[in-house]
Write a structure and sequence with these properties.
alpha/beta; three-stranded antiparallel beta sheet; globular; Arc Repressor Mutant, subunit A; seven-stranded mixed beta sheet; 359 residues; Rossmann fold
């Protein structure tokens, strides 16, 4: 069943709770860190909706504004641009964020996100911007139009959290191939969909990864989190996070993983997470050892920058730290200083480092 935008705001569904928890948590460290650039930080909610659900639950606009209000007391300078194209929803949004608009935290804009992007980019010239792009379906995700945002990355700090709805993509691919072509920046996906040797889940994984490749032209680090139906194995959609700063990926890796695992296992006696998403430390150990073997010598920070994007959300940063210390204690690897507790830049190797007297 396809839920219409206005009907969506009757009550907050489980997948929206999961998504908003990720957004609300990340904005705190993001705004705190980026504000050190001594510039106004702008958070853009491209598909804001009403801001509140009928059951009283807070939507993304309220979550964003409350976070900014809270951090203002700590010296963080930030504002929110809230875009909504449905007139009825926009009118409700204006009512629900009035206190934030009055205090110059929120700036609501009526209109299409795609149409307003050039104006937003012009108005935020020289400022760090976080784009939250959470549309209904895929109609508003034409890649050529998103690239106007991504081009900003080359000049200023820009991060994106975007909802990619694979199920909507499949529906549109059948009835409106020209739109799908614009969203996917080509027809490369058609061969995957036609491949009868692949399962539906395999097709979804392959298309998601290749779609993320389009972003890698602009961003150094990407990760994605499946946002699930509570009682099903399938993802309702995927939240894609794109940044050029490893600290952003590090934070989002930890939080998305925590929210995902908590959402999936809450109220269940046994681990319900699909096997391919579980924290198997033996597999992580193998990947770390293979990487050290490939490089000869490498530091812990470099290991995380290579493996974390590939295994995004599966392991917490503490897993990497504890496992590397364990491997040093077991003498499967060696640190430059001989200590098992090392900083991120200290070299490690599969063989012992020569002592000063032996150099």
């Amino acid at each position: 069943m396809v839920i219409k935008p206005k009907e969506f705001f009757k009550s907050k569904r489980s997948w929206s709770i999961m998504k908003d928890r990720i957004l609300g948590w990340y904005l705190i460290p993001y705004l705190t860190k980026v504000s050190k650039l001594k510039k106004m930080v702008v958070v853009v909610d491209g598909f804001a909706g009403k801001g509140l659900y009928k059951d009283g639950s807070e939507g993304s606009p309220i979550i964003i504004c409350k976070t900014i209000e809270k951090l203002r007391n700590k010296g963080v300078k930030a504002v929110a641009i809230l875009v909504e194209s449905n007139r009825e929803c926009f009118n409700e949004l204006k009512k629900n964020i009035k206190k934030y608009e009055d205090s110059k935290i929120a700036f609501p804009e009526f209109g299409s996100f795609n149409d307003l992007v050039p104006t937003i980019i012009e108005e935020t010239e020289g400022l760090p911007v976080f784009f939250y792009i959470d549309p209904f379906g895929i109609k508003s995700l034409e890649f050529e139009k998103l690239e106007r945002i991504f081009e900003k990355v080359k000049r200023y700090s820009t991060e994106v959290l975007i909802n990619f709805n694979y199920k909507a993509f499949r529906r549109v691919a059948e009835v409106c191939p020209e739109l799908t072509k614009k969203v996917m920046n080509g027809i490369w996906y058609r061969e995957i969909l036609k491949n009868k040797s692949l399962s539906d889940n395999q097709k979804e994984e392959m298309i998601l990864e290749k779609y993320k490749d389009l972003y890698r032209k602009y961003f150094n680090f990407l990760g994605s989190c499946p946002v699930m139906y509570k009682d099903e194995q399938n993802a309702k959609y995927h939240l894609i996070f794109a940044t050029s700063h490893f600290d952003g990926l590090r934070l989002m890796n930890n939080k998305m993983g925590d929210v995902y695992r908590d959402f999936y296992n809450k109220g269940r006696l046994f681990d319900a997470i699909p096997p391919g998403k579980r924290r198997d430390l033996k597999l992580l150990e193998r990947d770390i050892l293979d990487l050290i073997k490939e490089f000869g010598t490498i530091n812990k920070e470099h290991i995380k920058k290579i493996i974390m994007p590939k295994l995004f959300m599966r392991y917490k940063e503490s897993d990497y730290n504890k496992l590397i210390s364990k491997l040093i204690k077991e003498e499967k690897i060696y640190s430059e200083t001989g200590r098992s507790r090392i900083n991120g830049l200290e070299l490690i190797s599969l063989t012992k480092f020569p002592k000063e007297s032996e150099k």
